[in-house]
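Blackboard transcription, Thursday session:
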Amino acid sequence: MLWIALPLHAWDDPQRPSEAPLALRCWALGYTPRVAWLDGALALEVQASLRLFGGRQRLLQQIEQEAQDWSTQGMATAPTAWGAVALAHAPGQPHPGNWPAVLDRLPLTCLAATRAQATRLRLWGCATLGDVRRIPRDGLRRRLPPDVLHALDAAYGQAHPTFAWLSLPAQFDQTLEWADPVEHAQGLWFRAQRLLRALEGWLRARQSGALEIQVTGWPEGPNSTPALTLNVRCTRPTRDTSAWSKLLGEHLQRATLQAPVNRLQLVLQRWSPWPSDSGDLLSHPTPPGTMDWPQLIERLSARLGASQVQVGGLIDDPRPLHGQRWTPALDQLDPAHKQPSPTASRPRPGAQWEPAWLFDPPWAAPKDAEALDTPQQQASHWWTDQPQHHRLQSVEHPRHGLLWVRQGAPSTPEDGQVLGCHG
Amino acid sequence: MSQALRSTAHPWPDGPPAGVWQADQLIRDTVPGISTGHAALDATLPGGGWPPGALTELLLPTGQWPEWRLCLPALQTAAQSGQIVLVGPPALPNLQALAAQGLPPQALCQVVVPSPQARGWASEQALRCPQVAAVLLWLPAGPPEPLRRLHLAAQAHPGGPLLFVCRPQACAAVASPAPLRLQVHSQGTRGLSVSVLKRRGPPLLAPVQLSAPLPRLALLRSPARATSAQVLHFPRSVVRHALDRPAPARLG
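(Written on the board underneath:)
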């Protein structure tokens, strides 16, 4: 067993002594499901997670680095939970030597159970945990509350303590508050990082990936209306903080705040189970500086607007300008938003003779164009109340080249409209 | 003295080093190009086609849109290997016609933004995606700085996507970082006239004439028209609209 203890007094809530804040829980539970809040420190049992995170050294480095965001004071590792917590509460103590000889040298204040009895133990001439253990146990058992000996045994690995494991709520909905109101939407990006990291931990602990998040900025005041509401979505389950923060950054660039914001709320709208690894022995990482197609669409849609990035589909309609439909590319990639459209798998008959460019709305009739063929007549929708007739003709224009022109009844606006251009 | 002359005449007995070419010849050690589909044009381009992973600038007269006519054969090849991204097209691409000519709609994606900065940014992002096989960008007349950025972005992935930047003809007078600059004139039914303004090789004095046949023209010029009887034969499996009741074709 490998326990890591992180003393986090800044997050110690005297009202609820046995509970860590949600963001902290999310972060820690992203590493291991066995996390407990012990005596103002977070204790994580990470033995089973070592391989997943690239070995003991890399995992410890990563946790130590990320824990700095939580203003932790040092970090300790030990084979037992209470041993790690005791070591963590003794900053500046050199930790060399064999286990459990290290524990023997720790002062009485390091362990919650002995701290409560420190005055009495000092009178008996004990200064360290080792001194207490050298006193005959029978005498100790009679003079001290039973939990002190049990806690001491647990720290040395001679008893099996029970832990109140930390858990996560079923829904991710978290709010961050700060003192100085932020006036620009871009200023929220930095504040959102902590929420996104918490989200990553929540998703990791639940073995899932997020598809859509909602970010709401609240102005000061109890009954205020949101100053900003953003729905950010991904086409694939994603839990990487950097991917979400990039997407959110693009959205914030285009957003404006209705009022200065001092509260940010992040709600996870949709998520799906994390796809299991392919089991492929060879990894296929994307080369640095590149992105794959869904990422590209997400990025372009986030910055330019989802409706500006479009993919097209054919529609089985003989009318010249109604043979295609362009829809947001993001919707086509996202199974939840994909709309079943009446797409045709093959182009309509005669499409190979149509021009490559269409003008919608059509142009006015061109002058001095020379007709190249007799009008070709099309009738469609004769089975409905509004039958449509089209007479289409190819004309050559000295400047614009080969055009596709609609012939209607004389002196109607439809007559001579240019529908397309061959180039 | 004679030896010095000889060494000036043949400075590189094994041919010039990479990136250097004789002024009267096309650069030889370049990435093989993707055939343009027009043999006359292939013969004038270094690498024998459109250069992948490099910027190709097309200068077009106002009121003409010969892009598809010129690029369609190469785009058909590109569509088989990846996506084609159209950034700021001047009109609506006719998916029916393009699909009939070998560009499936799934391979096309268009980005409709008016601002030239946003268009440049979108193209730069698209160049970073390995699944993108070609990027067509339409830019208004303006300073060549955005082109420099795009050229660097395209170069970052050798053998990467094709990049065509279509700009108005007025830009021809201003220098451009594009290694290949073509001025394209549509001559209507007679084809396209392409002047190579800049290439890695000697300047080309006369424009190249491309027939660039259009299916529509082929139909108009078919022998059936000469006999004034024009019957459009559709494969029976494709017809899903009854346009009229079947009538016997008038022949002769």
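Lecturer's comment: The two ends of chain B are 81 Å apart (CA to CA).
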